[in-house]
Amino acid sequence: MSTPTTEYDSIRARLDDPETAIEDGHRKIEWAREHMPILHELRAEFERDQPLAGETVGMAMHVEAKTAALTELLAAGGAEVAITGCNPLSTHDDVSAALDAQEGITSYAERGVDDDAYYRAIEAVIGHEPTITVDDGMDMIAAIHQDYPDLIDTIVGGCEETTTGVHRLRAMDEDGELRYPVFAVNDTPMKRQFDNVHGTGEASLANIAMTTNLSYAGKTVVVAGYGDCGRGVAKKAKGQNAHVIVTEVDPRRALEAHMEGYEVTNMTDAASRGDVFITTTGNRDIITDDHFPEMKDGVVLANAGHFDVEVNLDQLEELAVETREAREGVKAYELADGRRINVLAEGRLVNLASPVALGHPVEIMDQSFGIQAVAVRELVENGDSYEAGVHDVPDALDREVAETKLDAEGISLDTLTDEQREYMGSWDHGT
Amino acid sequence: MSTPTTEYDSIRARLDDPETAIEDGHRKIEWAREHMPILHELRAEFERDQPLAGETVGMAMHVEAKTAALTELLAAGGAEVAITGCNPLSTHDDVSAALDAQEGITSYAERGVDDDAYYRAIEAVIGHEPTITVDDGMDMIAAIHQDYPDLIDTIVGGCEETTTGVHRLRAMDEDGELRYPVFAVNDTPMKRQFDNVHGTGEASLANIAMTTNLSYAGKTVVVAGYGDCGRGVAKKAKGQNAHVIVTEVDPRRALEAHMEGYEVTNMTDAASRGDVFITTTGNRDIITDDHFPEMKDGVVLANAGHFDVEVNLDQLEELAVETREAREGVKAYELADGRRINVLAEGRLVNLASPVALGHPVEIMDQSFGIQAVAVRELVENGDSYEAGVHDVPDALDREVAETKLDAEGISLDTLTDEQREYMGSWDHGT
Amino acid sequence: MSTPTTEYDSIRARLDDPETAIEDGHRKIEWAREHMPILHELRAEFERDQPLAGETVGMAMHVEAKTAALTELLAAGGAEVAITGCNPLSTHDDVSAALDAQEGITSYAERGVDDDAYYRAIEAVIGHEPTITVDDGMDMIAAIHQDYPDLIDTIVGGCEETTTGVHRLRAMDEDGELRYPVFAVNDTPMKRQFDNVHGTGEASLANIAMTTNLSYAGKTVVVAGYGDCGRGVAKKAKGQNAHVIVTEVDPRRALEAHMEGYEVTNMTDAASRGDVFITTTGNRDIITDDHFPEMKDGVVLANAGHFDVEVNLDQLEELAVETREAREGVKAYELADGRRINVLAEGRLVNLASPVALGHPVEIMDQSFGIQAVAVRELVENGDSYEAGVHDVPDALDREVAETKLDAEGISLDTLTDEQREYMGSWDHGT
Amino acid sequence: MSTPTTEYDSIRARLDDPETAIEDGHRKIEWAREHMPILHELRAEFERDQPLAGETVGMAMHVEAKTAALTELLAAGGAEVAITGCNPLSTHDDVSAALDAQEGITSYAERGVDDDAYYRAIEAVIGHEPTITVDDGMDMIAAIHQDYPDLIDTIVGGCEETTTGVHRLRAMDEDGELRYPVFAVNDTPMKRQFDNVHGTGEASLANIAMTTNLSYAGKTVVVAGYGDCGRGVAKKAKGQNAHVIVTEVDPRRALEAHMEGYEVTNMTDAASRGDVFITTTGNRDIITDDHFPEMKDGVVLANAGHFDVEVNLDQLEELAVETREAREGVKAYELADGRRINVLAEGRLVNLASPVALGHPVEIMDQSFGIQAVAVRELVENGDSYEAGVHDVPDALDREVAETKLDAEGISLDTLTDEQREYMGSWDHGT
């Protein structure tokens, strides 16, 4: 079939009291907007230049206040925008409703929907026949390629936000299956450093703390994976006086963690020593029934990677003699010997799916979304020049966003003199 | 008057659905209890030995799950316990109800009551004619001394939890006004290090982050005061990659902060540079109309000290042309030039009064409350040997609690040999 | 001319007491060798397989104990080796003599020689007609290209150790002037992370401390440049409780430093605030007479970049009314108003040219030199397959070295299961 | 005997070229003086007021440049000063000679003397019949009490610099054996924080690094003892990216280290895991033949405590099949199975006795010696009011020094208002 025909209401039709929700959502978005100086700058430009006029942007993102600021910006730039969630637990219904109430924006995102409704919402967005896709986890790109390939001809390109999504897109690209250009927003220096390291690091730890009421000082925190997210979680946990153990499969990352002063070992060894386990790998089966039986009573397991497959909950369920909600957002699995293993947010992304979750910090998303916005603009302006496949965001765009941020912070840099440029470009100076 | 005659219902009578509240409260307390190994150990002993049999303990504490574990422990030790809050915004009604539902415990604590009801609840506790008082901020001790001095004859002694309370008790003691012995629980090495440094540090930052959705990386965080709490807040904020500025009035503390690598300056200078301000002084008027007009648009002010007087909100109100709730728990004051100053939790203790507040971390309070419990036991067993006034908790009790904790963590120490003891005690060894 | 005809004695001929020097040098090399597990492993392989048989390796490196361990390894692999220094102040004469005394090795390096002798020593090495060059700063590659181009035909390839050297080689490559393949050893993940970040960071700070007897706690340390070296210096200085200010010309690096919690500003602003200035840019004129007049009395200037041009000493000399040796390795420049500016190691690399300099830490160089060794082996084995120009070290070689190191440290990793590999390679999993 | 009659020449008589030594020593002292702003300020006052006129100060300190600045200050204040070393390996002969060449100062200190000469030098100082003693390790106080008790009548009082010395003095005091008042300079907040934590921490690590050429990144550093010195060493080692293990005998200190994020265990367990061991206990037999056989090949042992008894070298010698000087300042003990244990500086204080040792950093000693100076002044002015025994330095003096330092750094504090003072002194404010 060429275009989805699914009937699916936008969020406002499904709420009991949409007016209050819109008001609450609007207030949340305003707070975000006020703390997003990069989007603030870009909005002035987008409103003036209307770079997205005539385009339709389909988004599958975590629908909360910061994403809303990006969504508004794209609409302000002239696009028609349709949006839904990229994780059933990360949507804020009030924000979704406040977006849906705006001219040029339709939102289908609803918190806590089942898998069927989740995918129907994605189809509803696709039904708008987007010319540009913006994904966080490539669910929309995948759905279009699998089910609505006829739409691909009119798609200029897409953006992908996450490590995991980019990883999977590259696999798809290698298989020759990716049929339009996609910017690996995740892979920009700005995104990797700030969103993955600082954003995931701070937000994951704060969410775990505020869900469990536990502290990090003196705790042994096991961080699975030492990519950008793992690096951030490990660094921030150490900064809260935890003892951090890192597990890895890659020798260079493992060595890097070791040289940073972390203890590095395998999960089998770490299982019996950790108090808190945080997975950041983007892979599956990181903590399994090889490990559960070794764990201490009362351990806390949380996922800061991507999908809910890093902790193998099926195996844990199998092992457990009883489960119960120990606290809001904490499910306790009791093993036969009475020990309890506490899983946060059903193994989903803890910084997005915990009961108090606010997602990534505002300023962090300002940087990521600044790149998204200029990448979307680039697709419209120069999309023709990109072949189908995964593309790095052009360096000049990434730098543009960094400069915008530094200006907003009032930070002054040195400037290369001509002599310095010449020196850096030369090779005939001696000792 | 010798005993309060106030009629004041316990919490269950004031709730719409006390049964659900009790159930919710019970579940919260169970989580706390499971993560408090010191209280766990002591409970076995208290249940067996009934050291508090015949005593009445009057408590004015933050009534939430961890305090409840202490309250239960005291009751398990044989005491009759009456409890109320020490801050109108820190009570969890469900926990209060769950306590009140237990044999031997009456709880008057209710969240959000006005000043009048707050003090009536304290009077209601005093109406139980406590033989031992346990305070967090000395409100109960003060009320007894001011209004019910006749009760003092039968009071064995008291415990005070906070820096500020101990400070005020010492002032009272110096004035010759303190008429029974009070243990300065706050001043034990265990309490100062763990509760003030780690507990206040981690909890304040997590609460601010989860109330505002802001991050610390790259932020300028101004910490007012470099006592134990300030030290913790500064250290943990640095550990989240903030740039930290410390303000102080004491030269040695200022020098200590300077030598630690923090920037140290006065508040007038810091006012224009900070993004987030956290007061930890226990004093009043730390941030005033000398400073508000210098601040950047969108700054966040939070209090991690004690009372809500550290930020002078009257003056801020005076300056503001408009105020509104920017987010739950965040009040925005808009100045005449459009700049906004965001105050968290009405200037009250952010880690106790923010909308997501859980109070100090569980394990931190396990340590503080372990000391409270053995201090209460000491008052019953040896109260006669203490004169009226502020007393340090005997060192042996503090060490007892440290050892209990290390045992629970499975940490093994070295042991001094006889030769080493002799060496340390001698003075005639040469170079 | 096609081959240098310079007469230049090897180091032993120039020492008063070569036997003692050889003995001292041998002891120094033995210490290094004992703490270089990667070279230890590779040596067993090289001795057995003789991969370099028939080759002549010309080296221009810092001639001290660690480099000696690499030199011995190359000789053990079957090569004839000729070596000289890459910085007149970094040579240890005893190590140079101990190398020269070994079968198959000739060393021309001598500490403190003048420019003329320095370049004559390079020519002497070139006179051996190397088939492989190993540089630290590309002086040998430059000399061959400029003065002995006829030799290029028989050169298989080269290795370059430093950021600055690689930078200049790329410039040369872009100009179409680089006529044989050169591995950018500096650019391997292993080298950048460990040598630049940890090695330069730790060694620079320790050398400054041990030359000046000053401490970092409470000091304001200005780090010019936030590349890998600057990152290391800044991180380690913060870890010693300094207040760190970073200066940069690149917006992304500046933003990264800002997000890490450092103060970022321009040198003009930093000049008046720093106590210690450390340049790490690889560029010239970082600190100039724009900045000297603003500096505090007694400031310390040190270079951890590459050449002695980062601090403009000509301008400083011009400004000074008097200069003297304030301590060994510290030259004090007195300005007209009496303020003194202290320059370490004549503005040369402080971790190599200070009076107590030992160069980079042993284990750090073990990693860098492990890569050098396998890169030289690769040139011999597969040199034909590389075109003239700058090449990245093949990833497999870099990983080989990381694995060797982890094995030596006894660190155990997790291993990807087939299911995990399949998952990471797939793109059709949903949420 | 009442006064020593030992004939012992001052240092100048024992040097081959005293004039060069004096010149070198003078230059070293000038560098120190220039970086000691507190002594600089006090010197102006002492020269003007001559508070020590008529007194004789006997000193047994580490005789190097910083101590010299204190010595000069005391002489400038009107005292006659006689000085010798407090550790045979920490004296700089040139500094000793430069002191001895000054009006009013006699120095007997000589590097590397044997035990007999060491104690004869102390006797030579005592021969000056000091009215005030200044000790670093209480050797002089002990000698006076044991051998020259008749002198005690004319002694006004003394100062003791070290943790260990104060500990032993307190033991002596408890035995009723201490017969004149001694200020526990070590116990002032200023000294404990800055000298012990920052000074010992930074200097020990830099000396170990510059003696061994090893780095800390990725190393396992075992710190024995978590008093102020251990705390500093652990913190700074972590700040260089080491993995730190702490051993302790005291439960509260152990718990504090645990809560800081360090691994805490006993030495038996740590022995097999450490790469570098640093003792900071002030006790004996911390590392013994219980531990040597468990250690890894090539480990480094260093002492940052006080005496050379923390590592039991007799037992190590016993175990070793061979010993040799592996590097300058490093003695390698080879065990029967070929493993080597490297001991730095003969087990003496590594920051004072390593081959490159400069002692504590200049600014750190400025603070400690500022307190020494005002404490000596206090003894002269108010010595009568102190009974025999160990005394804390009056708080006002400690604060005076802190304020002097802050002024010198240009750091501005807040000032308590009258309302704030009243608030802090009151106890009747409510919530």
Automatic annotation (TrEMBL), chains A, B, C, D:
Gene (UniProt): ahcY
Residues bound to substrate: D136, E161, K191, D195
Function: May play a key role in the regulation of the intracellular concentration of adenosylhomocysteine.
Enzyme Commission code(s) on record: 3.13.2.1
Catalytic activity annotation: S-adenosyl-L-homocysteine + H2O = L-homocysteine + adenosine
Gene3D superfamilies (alphabetical): Adenosylhomocysteinase-like (3.40.50.1480), NAD(P)-binding Rossmann-like Domain (3.40.50.720)
Species the sequence originates in: Halosegnis longus
Boundaries of every S-adenosyl-L-homocysteine hydrolase NAD binding domain copy: 196-357
Name used for this protein in its record: Adenosylhomocysteinase
GO molecular function terms attached to this record: adenosylhomocysteinase activity
Keyword Hydrolase assigned: yes
GO cellular component terms attached to this protein's record: cytosol
Primary localisation category: cytoplasm
Binding site for NAD(+): 162-164, 196, 225-232, 248, 283, 304-306, 351, 360
Pfam families (alphabetical): AdoHcyase, AdoHcyase_NAD
Lineage per the UniProt record: Archaea, Methanobacteriati, Methanobacteriota, Stenosarchaea group, Halobacteria
The entry's keywords: Cytoplasm, Hydrolase, NAD, One-carbon metabolism
